[in-house]
Amino acid sequence: MKAKKSKKLIPYSEEIYIEIPVAHLIVFGIYSILQRGENCTFEKLIEECFSLFPKVFSFSRHSEWPDSLKFDRTLRTLREKGLVVGNPNTFYSFTKFGEKIAKKTAQDLKTGLSKKIITEKPKRDAEINWVRNLQKSEVFQRFLKGEKGFIVNNMELRSLLHCTLETPMRIVKQNLSYSINLAEEFKERDLLKFLKLCRKKLTKK
Hints:
disordered N terminus; 2% strand; 2 domains
């Protein structure tokens, strides 16, 4: 079966997309490719973003060419924040949190940047339940009783993040980043402090 040819991409309004963070445009680029049922390689992501947002992703002196250096650092940051997964040697995809940003960006690109959309807090049931489960956990309650001398072992940390001992470290870190993002969104200071402490312990392993 022959693969379908991708339709020629039409750039979005420059007045709108230059006001959107570059990281959000890249996440949307991944989303756009996956929505067509295609694998998101590094090369295809560059082509996608340059076609849709040429002003942002071109060389300053040669606007007819895409600048791949504008992707490297941003993609690393997106991975660290638990928004996307993958690397230049495989394929890129997004996490649940990254998908939320991609859909918000899609809405912004259609209707123009909306402060209401940007500042809207995640109120979906799955996100609320995730945060509540973290707060109800025995290990977090132990942290609240005394931060000094607090210790969390590997099994406790994995269980907290819905992982097992067999779960790859990549997924453990991804779930932890996702949890930190939610704690920041909900402004749960104690939970955020706890999760950042867990991240420090995790990086030492």
